[in-house]
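Private note to self, pasted from the team thread so I don't lose it. Backbone tokens:
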């Protein structure tokens, strides 16, 4: 019985780093979103806030993808790369739709909307990949 408890404890600890890292990455994502909202709340140069948020989202996605890829065996790396290529095609189609739809805003507000929506698409992918790390 004592041995079973010890094995269970060791297995639980083995899963802890992955859960901790997932929670940390999700917390970082929430912090990034809070920073974006705080920037928008200032009401100054909001287009730059949206553009920066989109670029940060792309950077986080890149980081999460490579963290995940680095932990996979070769055959799963190839599968992940194929999955990512498929997602990139989907992303490009969604970006095209976002850029062609009429937000009714015009000018800088329209660009702000585009960056915001593109960041949303990217963050969806981040949330899919993080639990797999």
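Design output:
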């Amino acid at each position: 019985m004592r041995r079973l408890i010890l094995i269970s404890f060791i297995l639980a600890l083995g899963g802890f780093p992955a859960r901790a890292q997932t929670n940390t990455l999700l917390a970082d994502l929430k912090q990034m979103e809070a920073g974006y909202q705080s920037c928008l709340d200032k009401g100054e140069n909001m287009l730059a806030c949206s553009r920066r948020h989109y670029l940060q989202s792309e950077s986080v996605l890149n980081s999460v993808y490579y963290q995940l890829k680095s932990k996979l065996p070769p055959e799963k790396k190839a599968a992940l790369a194929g999955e990512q290529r498929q997602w990139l095609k989907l992303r490009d189609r969604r970006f095209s739709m976002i850029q062609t739809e009429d937000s009714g805003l015009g000018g800088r507000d329209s660009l702000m909307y585009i960056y915001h929506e593109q960041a949303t698409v990217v963050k969806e992918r981040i949330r899919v990949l993080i639990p797999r790390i």
